[in-house]
């Protein structure tokens, strides 16, 4: 499979409101793709459609081999297992340690063997340079460290596509760069990433394919300061 995502003549609605129309895009394996656009132009609605939080009711769409038009409620957990989703506000469980946060996800996604589970937790924490912090609680970590843990969590089941919705939105510029370095490293190791962001400084520092939401459309932009 070459593309991990395509949308053809797709429209995205919030209730009766048309948010985006006639979307024709494709994301191929191994790409790092930005999704930009002003507040309210539909980035979150777009991302939600991709992880099936919002149904696709018009056009065609396929993501990691799931048809977004015909997807059944009971298939959603299986789709989400093939996706890694990272949010602006980290969404770690505050009542347990980092290790237990990650073990919880493995259990919920069908892992049984304790030794294999601990090995996997260690592997993903290592990828985000957080191997020594597994015993800590989320509130004992900085925002950047919590986001790195959230990225580790997204990697647990070796996803075919990582969807990151404003992953640096709550972080200061220096910490944003640290998180971005982790995402770049993961991408270099073969993971495909779609990242919604407001942060033009990151786009300039790490140029890559860019999709823009504007006036109910999504289109690819050529990266030049003036077009952003
Ligand atoms: N649950 C909802 N019900 C109805 N309309 C909604 C809902 N969520 C968002 N919208 C509308 O859909 C449009 C797109 O919103 P969306 O959150 O996708 O934009 P965004 O580009 O992600 O903005 P932001 O950067 O502020 O998150 C907006 O006009 C918004 O008011």
TrEMBL record:
Pfam families: ABC_tran. SUPFAM superfamilies: P-loop containing nucleoside triphosphate hydrolases (SSF52540). PROSITE patterns: ABC_TRANSPORTER_1, ABC_TRANSPORTER_2. Keywords: ATP-binding, Nucleotide-binding. GO terms for cellular component: plasma membrane. One of its GO terms (molecular function) is transmembrane transporter activity. InterPro entries: AAA+_ATPase, ABC_transporter-like_ATP-bd, ABC_transporter-like_CS, ABC_transpr_LolD-like, P-loop_NTPase. Residues 5-228 form the ABC transporter domain. It comes from the Bacteria. Belongs to the ABC transporter superfamily. Part of the ABC transporter FtsEX involved in cellular division. Important for assembly or stability of the septal ring. This is Cell division ATP-binding protein FtsE. It comes from Bizionia arctica.
